[in-house]
Amino acid sequence: RMGSIAAHRQQIDFYFRLAQSPAVRTICEVGFNAGHSTALWLTANPTARVYTFDLLANAFSMPAADLLKERFPGRFNATKGSSLNAVPQFWRLPSPPCDLVHVDGRHSYHNTLLDALNLVPKASAHALFIFDDQCDPQDCNAATVIPGEPTLATCDLVSAGLLERVVSF
């Protein structure tokens, strides 16, 4: 689905349940925008840390990030800049592995593929990857409101054996 998760109750509930898992200690996400999913992760799991990567170019992005840093001290880290540069630099730093990975950045084939590939080295062995704004690969065409390129990227990651599809909705 396109747009903020705040408009989609089913997605909110799904994300909330995922974040509550005791296996989730570190969440890494590409794409912050106004921070709706980040706020949800931090609220659902009171011990999890969230690392987010975003251009933070919208007028509301930095104030939202600052609010979350204040509200959840020591649990939220926002890196400003292109995820294609920031994520590889991040996994070179000493930090815990990502247990939950959320890819919701630029909605292109190139960015979706590279963001996922760049986060794989930082993912724990049991990490769950979530890709937002995906269409049904069997019915993804120009008439859908969801761009097909991110879906093609995730399909290629699964076809290459780099990721395994667990669930989609």
Give structural notes.
The protein is of the alpha/beta class. It has helices at 9-19, 36-44, 61-71, 83-91, 109-119, 148-159, and strands at residues 26-30, 49-54, 76-80, 98-103, 123-131. Strands 3-2-1-4-5 form a five-stranded parallel sheet, sandwiched between helices. Helix 1 (9-19) packs across helix 2. It is globular. The model has no long low-confidence stretch (mean pLDDT 86).
Helix-strand layout with pairing:
Elements: H1 9-19, E1 26-30, H2 36-44, E2 49-54, H3 61-71, E3 76-80, H4 83-91, E4 98-103, H5 109-119, E5 123-131, H6 148-159
Parallel strand pairs: 1-2, 1-4, 2-3, 4-5
Tell me the structural class. alpha/beta
* Biggest pleated sheet: 5 strands, parallel
- Continuous helix count: 6
What share of residues are in beta strands?
A: 15-25%
Helix coverage percent: 25-40%
Strand order in the largest sheet? 3-2-1-4-5
Task: Give the overall form.
Answer: globular
The Rg value, from CA coordinates, equals 15 Å
H/E series, N to C? HEHEHEHEHEH
pLDDT < 50 stretches: none
Give the rounded overall mean pLDDT: 86
Key terms:
169 residues; alpha/beta; 5-stranded parallel β-sheet; 5 strands; 18% strand; globular
Give a nutshell description of this structure.
By secondary structure, the chain is α/β, with parallel strands linked by helices.
